[in-house]
Batch of 2 targets.
Target 1
Amino acid sequence: MAEQKEATVTFGVLNETSDTESRVALTPDIVTRLGRNGISCIIESGAGNAAEYTDEDYKAAGATVASRDEVIATADALGFIDRPSAETVAKLKAGQWVIGMLGSFTDTAYVESLSNAGLVGVAIEKLPRQLSSAQSMDEMTSQNSVMGYKAAITAANAYGAFLPMMTTAAGTIRPAKALVLGAGIAGLQAIGTLKRLGAVVTAYDVRPASQGEVESLGAKFLDLGLDFSKGQGEGGYARALSAEEQAQQQAAVDEKAAGFDIIITTAKVPGRKPPVLLTAAGVKGLKRGAVIVDCAASDLGGNVEGSAVGEQVTEGGVKLIGAPYLASGVATTASNLLSRNVADILVHFVRDGKLGQDLTEELDDALVVAGRAAAPAAAADAEKSEK
Ligand code: NAD
């Protein structure tokens, strides 16, 4: 067994308080790994239960299991899945580190509340994902991948017919036709899973580069007859379409969607509200029995008009599921991947036995520190221009 260093930094994890959250930001195998880097772990009793990791598992791995208040009082850095509530932030002490998805693109006030409290935030959503050294820290990739898988399972579960073609003594059943809109990390995983379940899959993404990725999975690329090729955004991400382009895209998607039984949407543009790809008219045009899973559903809206976070709406026999929390439904695996991401972030910032924000420039943009709340202005501008 690899040698454990004397611990000089304590990493704490609390029970996630949201009803929709089953994941935990630390799994027992990661406790051992952090120990090798001079980081000890303290976890709130019961924090891993919903993801099937018991207090005993954490103790056996060398972590301390304690009350919520003890964790808050002891930890130098805390890892979160859902960012800490105002109530939790009020209990944290100046100098403590908060690592998680902080919503910094859209919620300036929250980010300021952290820096005003003297906390150091690491906003995972701002990590430079394209840097090879940051790839193992990329929670969005790990969790979106889990989400795409679960979206396919969720759709299959809600759909009242088979996905695969099946030849039986009573006749042949045709395969389900599935459409995936947004073929990034989540979309590609949804395509792969739908194909494994036997559906005939078509997919669409606004990034020209995605066609080859979709086809390499054996799915068909949907040709909307529109050319958005000039406008791929920075860093390989989609750019936001203009209002006119969006209207053209919606009309084309609404028309093409009518032929599908299952639609999974995952389209996002970093720092902006998700684009509406399928309008209410498009939903109305679907066949009875069709199922839509909108993974981009959010309080700002989703990819499908009428989708609502955590709700299933049925209209005209079409089921519309607003499901941004799907990774939480695969909590054991999702937690393990996520805690590797968080641990790698933490280890990156520990040098000579101390947490230090000035030791790295690579991840600088993701840091929320008093006096320089990490540039949420660009996103605020983006939001204004959407309105
Ligand atoms: P995301 O979650 O921001 O968006 C999901 C998908 O929605 C993207 O593929 C995007 O192009 C698409 N989309 C946005 N607007 C759309 C619209 N109007 N119509 C149709 N589709 C739309 O993105 P993501 O899945 O996290 O990643 C996107 C890309 O970035 C992928 O190509 C991925 O491979 C790449 N990426 C690279 C790295 C890296 O280099 N390490 C890390 C993560 C992601």
Target 2
Amino acid sequence: MSKFSNERTASLVPYTPGEQPKKNQKYIKLNTNESPFAPSPRAQKMAADAAARLNLYCDPTCRELTELFAEKNGVEPECVLMTNGSDEILNFAFMAFCGEGRPAVFPDITYGFYPVFAELNGVPYETVPLREDFSINVEDYIGINKNIFIANPNAPTGLALPLSDIERIVASNPDNIVVIDEAYVDFGAESAVQLTKRYKNLIVTQTFSKSRSLAGARLGAGIADAALIADMNTVKYSTNPYNVNSMTQAAGIGSLLDEDYTRKNLDVIKSAREYTAKELSALGFTLTNSSANFIFAAHPDIDGEKLYFELKARGILVRHFSGERIKNYNRITVGLPKDMQTLVKTICEILESIK
Ligand code: PMP
């Protein structure tokens, strides 16, 4: 820390992104919930074409992309805001709606960026413990009268809430915003997008990083009542009007025009998830019933951190979190079927070696 940092920066504990191996390190990479598939050929081509126009500023309104995304979701374009990854729309929500006297609340085990955004923006926040089985107790949020952030499916547990529960939470907190972070929704949860037409306090956030294979492009979106979108646009135009670069806008359009590609990949990932869950259960792992593109698993005979290091030593990267309640677990991204077979085989060897 330099002697120039202000009080808030000095006390921040930043988010730690998952490890990105260096070029010469060859891992089976199952640690940051990326897609194992390349972006759709159409997305790649449109991004490459956009490179020739990088001398010009990108469209700050993301008009074409916004209109297409809105149409695909059955909402009006003024109810959509495209952002630099969904991390940015989450930050915009904290900046626009939370603060002194407008506290935030989220589960004790969830996406690690929520408390970081809260601290960064000087937002008072509380966490609500998940149940013993890591499920969200919906009753905890009914009429809680704070701004609510819930990932659905939740991370790193993968557990999803039904739409009816989301609606109860939203309806019971009309004077607060409810942000439903749908980063993993395509892998098996019900989307709350249609509820944004009926509830003026609901923001749904989505990403192109997971099911759409565009993590490196950084593209996310918020869907909400037009008044909420306008408030977040005020934040956007007060920080970085050109938040989504032109290659990314083009890639996003290409991806949306190539739904079949995404759907096919989703089918492969979901069946690889079922395969992996079945095999790991048979090996004695405790697993959550994941609706996401990752598996959250613990084994009674091997400490979570030890398993993480043993896998890493054998060329497989997974994600381990040190939080007290989850330190025995690892979050394993679902990759290609052949990589999941290698994972299962490697875990068998590790379990054999510690007998
Ligand atoms: N929400 C959740 C629950 C996540 O796990 C992630 C990925 N780290 C994000 C949001 C943000 O993803 P991105 O910024 O790539 O859209």
